[in-house]
Design brief:
Layout lengths: L2 E5 L17 H13 L4 E4 L18 H7 L2 H9 L12 E6 L5 H4 L4 H12 L3 E5 L22 E2 L4 H7 L9 H7 L3 E2 L9 E4 L2 E4 L5 H12 L2
Parallel strand pairs: 1-2, 1-3, 3-4, 4-8, 5-6
Antiparallel strand pairs: 7-8
Helix pairs in contact: 1-2, 1-8
Length: 226
Protein backbone atom coordinates (compact mmCIF):
# COMPACT_ATOMS: atom_id res chain seq x y z
CA UNK A 1 0.00 0.00 0.00
CA UNK A 2 1.29 3.48 -0.83
CA UNK A 3 2.02 6.02 1.87
CA UNK A 4 0.72 9.49 2.75
CA UNK A 5 3.11 12.44 2.68
CA UNK A 6 2.63 14.93 5.52
CA UNK A 7 3.84 18.50 4.91
CA UNK A 8 4.90 20.65 7.88
CA UNK A 9 6.33 24.15 8.24
CA UNK A 10 9.86 25.29 9.13
CA UNK A 11 8.79 28.82 10.10
CA UNK A 12 9.45 29.64 13.77
CA UNK A 13 8.01 33.14 14.13
CA UNK A 14 5.60 35.58 12.54
CA UNK A 15 7.73 37.36 9.98
CA UNK A 16 9.03 40.73 11.21
CA UNK A 17 8.33 39.84 14.85
CA UNK A 18 9.71 37.69 17.65
CA UNK A 19 6.33 36.06 18.25
CA UNK A 20 6.66 32.28 17.85
CA UNK A 21 4.61 30.11 15.54
CA UNK A 22 5.11 26.79 13.76
CA UNK A 23 3.20 23.54 13.29
CA UNK A 24 -0.19 23.29 14.96
CA UNK A 25 0.63 20.02 16.70
CA UNK A 26 -2.80 18.40 16.66
CA UNK A 27 -3.16 18.98 12.94
CA UNK A 28 -0.35 16.52 12.43
CA UNK A 29 -0.89 14.05 15.28
CA UNK A 30 -4.66 13.62 14.98
CA UNK A 31 -4.37 12.96 11.26
CA UNK A 32 -1.53 10.50 11.80
CA UNK A 33 -3.51 8.63 14.44
CA UNK A 34 -6.46 8.11 12.08
CA UNK A 35 -4.22 7.11 9.16
CA UNK A 36 -2.11 4.70 11.16
CA UNK A 37 -5.18 3.03 12.64
CA UNK A 38 -6.05 2.19 9.03
CA UNK A 39 -2.63 0.61 8.56
CA UNK A 40 -1.28 3.35 6.28
CA UNK A 41 2.30 4.57 6.70
CA UNK A 42 3.35 8.21 6.57
CA UNK A 43 6.44 10.22 5.72
CA UNK A 44 7.17 13.82 6.70
CA UNK A 45 8.50 16.62 4.51
CA UNK A 46 9.04 20.34 5.04
CA UNK A 47 10.12 23.10 2.65
CA UNK A 48 13.68 23.12 3.98
CA UNK A 49 13.76 19.68 5.56
CA UNK A 50 14.98 19.10 9.09
CA UNK A 51 13.53 20.81 12.16
CA UNK A 52 9.84 21.64 12.51
CA UNK A 53 8.91 24.07 15.32
CA UNK A 54 5.64 23.72 17.21
CA UNK A 55 3.25 26.63 17.56
CA UNK A 56 3.09 27.18 21.34
CA UNK A 57 -0.55 28.19 21.10
CA UNK A 58 -1.40 24.70 19.85
CA UNK A 59 -0.16 23.20 23.12
CA UNK A 60 -3.17 24.72 24.86
CA UNK A 61 -5.38 22.30 22.94
CA UNK A 62 -3.56 19.02 23.50
CA UNK A 63 -5.25 15.92 24.83
CA UNK A 64 -4.18 12.39 25.71
CA UNK A 65 -4.02 11.18 22.10
CA UNK A 66 -2.05 14.20 20.89
CA UNK A 67 0.45 13.87 23.73
CA UNK A 68 0.81 10.14 23.14
CA UNK A 69 2.12 10.73 19.63
CA UNK A 70 4.09 13.79 20.74
CA UNK A 71 6.07 11.45 22.98
CA UNK A 72 6.52 8.83 20.27
CA UNK A 73 10.18 8.49 19.32
CA UNK A 74 9.50 7.92 15.62
CA UNK A 75 7.34 11.04 15.40
CA UNK A 76 9.87 13.13 17.31
CA UNK A 77 12.71 11.98 15.08
CA UNK A 78 11.07 11.98 11.66
CA UNK A 79 8.10 14.27 12.15
CA UNK A 80 9.74 17.08 14.13
CA UNK A 81 13.52 16.84 14.28
CA UNK A 82 14.49 15.50 10.87
CA UNK A 83 11.77 15.85 8.23
CA UNK A 84 12.65 14.96 4.66
CA UNK A 85 13.73 17.52 2.10
CA UNK A 86 11.66 17.95 -1.05
CA UNK A 87 14.50 16.67 -3.22
CA UNK A 88 14.34 13.33 -1.43
CA UNK A 89 10.66 12.75 -2.15
CA UNK A 90 9.56 10.27 -4.83
CA UNK A 91 5.93 11.27 -5.57
CA UNK A 92 4.97 7.86 -6.99
CA UNK A 93 5.38 6.36 -3.51
CA UNK A 94 2.38 8.32 -2.19
CA UNK A 95 -1.35 8.10 -2.62
CA UNK A 96 -1.94 11.46 -0.94
CA UNK A 97 -0.23 14.60 0.28
CA UNK A 98 -1.55 16.30 3.41
CA UNK A 99 -0.79 19.92 4.28
CA UNK A 100 -0.85 20.63 8.01
CA UNK A 101 -1.43 24.10 9.40
CA UNK A 102 -0.20 26.55 11.99
CA UNK A 103 0.37 30.16 10.97
CA UNK A 104 3.95 29.44 9.91
CA UNK A 105 2.77 27.77 6.71
CA UNK A 106 1.58 31.13 5.42
CA UNK A 107 5.20 32.00 4.65
CA UNK A 108 6.78 28.77 3.42
CA UNK A 109 3.98 26.78 1.76
CA UNK A 110 2.40 29.00 -0.94
CA UNK A 111 5.35 29.62 -3.25
CA UNK A 112 7.38 26.46 -2.81
CA UNK A 113 7.72 25.15 -6.38
CA UNK A 114 9.13 21.80 -5.30
CA UNK A 115 6.14 21.05 -3.09
CA UNK A 116 3.80 22.17 -5.85
CA UNK A 117 5.42 19.74 -8.29
CA UNK A 118 5.24 16.89 -5.79
CA UNK A 119 1.57 17.59 -5.09
CA UNK A 120 0.68 17.89 -8.77
CA UNK A 121 2.40 14.62 -9.63
CA UNK A 122 0.60 12.81 -6.82
CA UNK A 123 -2.71 14.30 -7.96
CA UNK A 124 -2.11 13.50 -11.62
CA UNK A 125 -1.34 9.92 -10.59
CA UNK A 126 -4.90 9.60 -9.19
CA UNK A 127 -3.75 10.59 -5.70
CA UNK A 128 -5.37 12.97 -3.23
CA UNK A 129 -4.65 16.51 -2.09
CA UNK A 130 -5.54 17.03 1.56
CA UNK A 131 -5.25 20.05 3.83
CA UNK A 132 -6.59 21.44 7.06
CA UNK A 133 -6.86 24.99 8.41
CA UNK A 134 -3.94 27.19 7.23
CA UNK A 135 -2.59 24.20 5.33
CA UNK A 136 -4.80 25.28 2.44
CA UNK A 137 -2.04 27.81 1.73
CA UNK A 138 -0.15 24.94 0.12
CA UNK A 139 -2.92 24.43 -2.42
CA UNK A 140 -3.52 28.04 -3.41
CA UNK A 141 -0.83 28.41 -6.07
CA UNK A 142 -0.68 24.92 -7.57
CA UNK A 143 -1.36 25.08 -11.30
CA UNK A 144 -2.20 22.21 -13.62
CA UNK A 145 -0.22 21.49 -16.77
CA UNK A 146 -2.38 23.93 -18.73
CA UNK A 147 -1.47 26.75 -16.34
CA UNK A 148 -4.83 26.92 -14.56
CA UNK A 149 -5.09 27.04 -10.77
CA UNK A 150 -5.94 23.55 -9.59
CA UNK A 151 -8.48 24.80 -7.04
CA UNK A 152 -10.35 26.87 -9.66
CA UNK A 153 -13.99 25.76 -9.66
CA UNK A 154 -13.41 23.35 -6.78
CA UNK A 155 -15.27 23.26 -3.48
CA UNK A 156 -12.69 23.80 -0.75
CA UNK A 157 -12.41 25.18 2.75
CA UNK A 158 -9.75 26.42 5.14
CA UNK A 159 -9.19 28.87 7.96
CA UNK A 160 -11.67 31.65 7.29
CA UNK A 161 -11.25 35.40 7.44
CA UNK A 162 -13.64 35.47 10.40
CA UNK A 163 -11.51 32.90 12.24
CA UNK A 164 -8.37 34.90 11.47
CA UNK A 165 -9.97 38.00 12.98
CA UNK A 166 -11.16 36.11 16.04
CA UNK A 167 -7.73 34.57 16.54
CA UNK A 168 -6.22 38.07 16.60
CA UNK A 169 -3.86 37.34 13.73
CA UNK A 170 -5.47 39.11 10.77
CA UNK A 171 -2.89 41.90 10.80
CA UNK A 172 0.07 39.54 11.28
CA UNK A 173 -0.41 37.19 8.33
CA UNK A 174 0.78 38.07 4.79
CA UNK A 175 -2.59 37.30 3.21
CA UNK A 176 -5.99 35.78 3.96
CA UNK A 177 -6.49 32.22 2.75
CA UNK A 178 -10.20 32.67 2.08
CA UNK A 179 -9.61 35.82 0.01
CA UNK A 180 -6.89 34.26 -2.15
CA UNK A 181 -8.91 31.08 -2.67
CA UNK A 182 -11.84 33.14 -3.90
CA UNK A 183 -9.51 35.12 -6.18
CA UNK A 184 -8.45 31.75 -7.65
CA UNK A 185 -12.12 31.12 -8.49
CA UNK A 186 -12.44 28.38 -5.88
CA UNK A 187 -15.86 27.74 -4.37
CA UNK A 188 -14.85 28.47 -0.78
CA UNK A 189 -17.32 26.82 1.60
CA UNK A 190 -17.38 27.65 5.30
CA UNK A 191 -19.40 26.75 8.36
CA UNK A 192 -19.59 28.29 11.82
CA UNK A 193 -16.22 29.45 13.11
CA UNK A 194 -14.14 26.99 15.13
CA UNK A 195 -16.50 24.08 14.46
CA UNK A 196 -15.60 20.84 12.69
CA UNK A 197 -16.10 20.99 8.95
CA UNK A 198 -14.48 19.19 6.03
CA UNK A 199 -15.47 19.04 2.39
CA UNK A 200 -14.54 16.89 -0.58
CA UNK A 201 -14.48 17.74 -4.26
CA UNK A 202 -13.20 14.79 -6.23
CA UNK A 203 -9.69 14.03 -5.01
CA UNK A 204 -9.32 17.28 -3.05
CA UNK A 205 -10.32 17.10 0.63
CA UNK A 206 -9.99 20.12 2.90
CA UNK A 207 -10.84 21.01 6.51
CA UNK A 208 -11.75 24.43 7.86
CA UNK A 209 -9.89 24.67 11.17
CA UNK A 210 -7.95 22.72 13.83
CA UNK A 211 -11.13 20.95 14.90
CA UNK A 212 -11.56 19.41 11.43
CA UNK A 213 -8.48 17.17 11.24
CA UNK A 214 -10.16 13.85 11.89
CA UNK A 215 -13.01 14.75 9.54
CA UNK A 216 -10.48 15.21 6.72
CA UNK A 217 -8.79 11.90 7.54
CA UNK A 218 -12.10 10.05 7.65
CA UNK A 219 -13.24 11.40 4.28
CA UNK A 220 -9.93 10.29 2.80
CA UNK A 221 -10.10 6.83 4.38
CA UNK A 222 -13.65 6.40 3.10
CA UNK A 223 -12.28 6.96 -0.42
CA UNK A 224 -9.36 4.57 0.12
CA UNK A 225 -11.66 1.83 1.41
CA UNK A 226 -14.17 1.99 -1.45
Amino acid sequence: MKKVLIVETNIQNYQGTDEPTGLWLGESTEFIEEIQKAGIKVDYVSPKGGFVPIDPRSMKYVNKSIMSLYHDKEFILNGLANTKKTKDIVPTEYMAIYYTGGHGVMWDFPDNKELQEIALEIYNNNGYLLSVCHGIAGLLNIKDRSGQYLISGKKITGFTTTEEILSGMKNKVPFLNQKIAEQRNANFIKKRFFKEFAIQDGRIITGQNPFSVRAVAKLFLKEVNK
